[in-house]
TrEMBL record:
Keyword Kinase: no
The protein's name: HD-GYP domain-containing protein
Keyword Transcription: no
UniProt source species: Streptomyces salyersiae
Domain HD-GYP: 235-430
NCBIfam families listed in its UniProt record: HDIG
E.C. code: 3.1.4.-
SUPFAM superfamilies (UniProt xref): HD-domain/PDEase-like
Lineage: Bacteria, Bacillati, Actinomycetota, Actinomycetes, Kitasatosporales
Keywords from the named record: Hydrolase, Membrane, Transmembrane, Transmembrane helix
Transmembrane stretches, start-end: 68-89, 110-127, 147-173, 185-206, 212-230
Length: 462
């Protein structure tokens, strides 16, 4: 706890005291707390959490459970609020923590989930949810349709309280500005509604004539579903990390065009959306735009940053960068069609491009999109030796060269997308770190000719 900022320690202490205060009524003899149900649910939360602590299993299982939310919401539906507060505590205190301070994070997680589950249970009880479940001493049959409204309300309260507490710890422990601490609150509502429906199904089965055993039967499929979902997100995070690492490597080697890759990816996505591509292809095309220049990693730095015109031999070396890029990403399976775009984005419709001089429909569709996006961003970006062109002028130049250099369909799609969405990328000067550190009058001459569009007649390939 010593490494935790003072404001965060006070915040965690306040949350812990509130959680203890909320749980006190359950400890009184007159409360009639269903200790058997509470103990079984708490044990299930603990069991869901423990595999994540195993050295081999921990990397492939959902982390944080006390944070197996369907089970916590089932507890909110089955128990009185004061008892529901206690369910998540064993799992939270025993769960895996990946970063220090470990004690502070465990205590905070236990207090946060206790308050969140208690608030959800209170909202569910306030709207008459327990009566709609039936079962128990009354012997009434569970009424699932009548429990949907209170269950959804409980999910909204669960999502709101959880996000509000998260925002508070971000503001106190990590000093995130208050205006940003609660950003993204709405994004968690949908998943929590789904968790609530799964938890409600478990609660209805628990109260049914078949009892808790039937609820346990559906627990395993739900947990496996959460594992699959977690794996999907881990895979996407790994993909993004791979892309980010490659782009950063290119930016370090050729800082002169820093930011260009991301903007080409954004422009490629605009074109793809206008063409009505499927979401999966649109993502692959965005990756293609971001990585189109990754082959520069294979080009000698002295050639990339050379001042003045290139020799014919140096020009041939730079023209190899699409092939280098294709070799670099050949083994990255998730890039899919993006690999063809990386290899062929410098081909021209009339066959005068490189590396293979393809023409017309022989050029892959992704490559034709990235070629337009690449030229558009190069024309509209400000360089140290010339200002960027206005968007209308860049589009006009693309239209002038449509049919010879660019695919007219892709040019029209970009023009429509720009009319519809605009282009928000600021025209910032892009210079190398070494050049930017020099006084204005001592800066080196531009390391290359303008890279963008056909009208610039570049002295070297882009």
């Amino acid at each position: 706890m010593r490494s935790t900022p003072g404001a965060a320690r006070l915040y965690i202490l306040g949350a812990s005291v509130c959680a203890a205060f909320c749980a006190l009524p359950a400890l009184t003899p007159a409360a009639g707390t269903p200790w058997g149900t509470l103990a079984l649910l708490a044990a299930l939360c603990l069991v869901c959490e423990l595999p994540a602590r195993h050295p081999a299993l921990g990397r492939s299982l959902p982390v944080g459970a006390g944070s197996f939310f369907p089970l916590l919401l089932a507890a909110a539906f089955l128990l009185p609020p004061a008892a529901a507060v206690l369910v998540s505590i064993p799992g939270s205190l025993a769960g895996r923590v990946e970063q220090p301070p470990f004690t502070a994070r465990r205590v905070w997680r236990a207090a946060q989930l206790a308050l969140t589950v208690g608030a959800a249970s209170w909202a569910y009880a306030f709207l008459g949810g327990p009566g709609s479940l039936g079962g128990g001493g009354g012997g009434a049959a569970p009424g699932l349709p009548y429990a949907l409204l209170p269950a959804c309300a409980a999910a909204l309260v669960f999502s709101t309280v959880l996000a509000a507490l998260d925002g508070g710890i971000l503001a106190t422990a990590e000093r995130v500005p208050l205006r940003h601490a609660w950003r993204g609150l709405h994004a968690s509502v949908g998943p929590h509604l789904v968790h609530a429906l799964a938890g409600l199904m478990m609660a209805v089965l628990w109260r049914s004539p078949y009892g808790p055993v039937s609820a346990l039967v559906v627990l395993l499929p739900m947990y496996i579903s959460c594992w699959v979902f977690a794996q999907y997100h881990r895979q996407h995070a790994a993909h993004r990390a791979t892309i980010r690492a490659l782009v950063q490597a290119v930016d370090i080697k050729d800082g002169y065009t820093r930011g260009h890759s991301e903007r080409v990816g954004r422009a490629s996505e605009l074109i793809a959306r206008e063409l009505g591509m499927a979401e999966r292809r649109m993502e692959a095309l965005r990756f293609a735009g971001i990585l189109h220049d990754v082959g520069k990693l294979g080009v000698p730095t002295r050639v990339l940053r050379k001042d003045g015109p290139l020799t014919p031999e140096e020009r041939r070396i730079i023209e190899l960068h699409p092939e280098y890029g294709h070799e670099i990403v050949r083994g990255i399976g998730f890039l899919d069609e993006a690999r063809a775009a990386i290899l062929h984005h410098h081909e021209r419709l009339d066959g005068s491009g490189y590396p293979y001089g393809l023409s017309g429909a022989a050029i892959p569709e992704f490559a034709r999109v990235v070629a337009v996006a690449d030229a558009f961003d190069a024309m509209t970006s400000t360089r140290s030796y010339r200002p960027g062109r206005p968007v209308p002028a860049a589009v006009e130049e693309l239209e002038r060269c449509a049919g010879s250099q660019f695919d007219p369909r892709m040019v029209r799609a970009l023009a429509r997308a720009l009319d519809r969405h605009g282009w928000s990328a600021a025209a910032t000067a892009v210079t190398s770190d070494e050049e930017a550190s020099r006084p204005p009058r001592q800066r080196l001459a531009p390391p290359r000719e303008p890279a963008p569009g056909p009208a610039d007649r570049p002295g070297r390939p882009r």
